[in-house]
Amino acid sequence: MCFSIPSKITALNPEGQLATVDTLGRERHVSVHLIGEPLAIGDYLLIQSGFAMEKISEERALDSLALYREIVDKMTNGEI
C-alpha cells in the first residue's frame, strides 16, 4: 500500500516541468509533467516516487495534513 502526503508548491520551473514542494517542512523537487491542469505557487499536490500525480484542493490537503500530524504526535507520545 502506498500513500502520499500533500505537498505545497513553493516554486515552479515550467520549462523543465518541475516544481519545488514543501512536504511537512522538507523541500524537494518533483516532476509535474503528468499534471494536465495549470499549476501555481501555493497549490497542493499528491506525490508518488518523485512525480506529482494529482492536484488537490487546499481544504483536502489541510485536512490530510492535520491527520498526519495527529498520528505523528500520538506516535511521539507512545500512544500508538
Automatic annotation (TrEMBL):
Q: What Pfam families does this protein's entry cite?
A: HupF_HypC (PF01455)
Write down the superkingdom of origin.
Answer: Bacteria
InterPro entries xrefs: Hydrogenase_HupF/HypC
Q: Which residues cross the membrane?
A: none
NCBIfam families (UniProt xref): hypC_hupF (TIGR00074)
Family per record: Belongs to the HupF/HypC family.
Q: What is this protein called?
A: HypC/HybG/HupF family hydrogenase formation chaperone
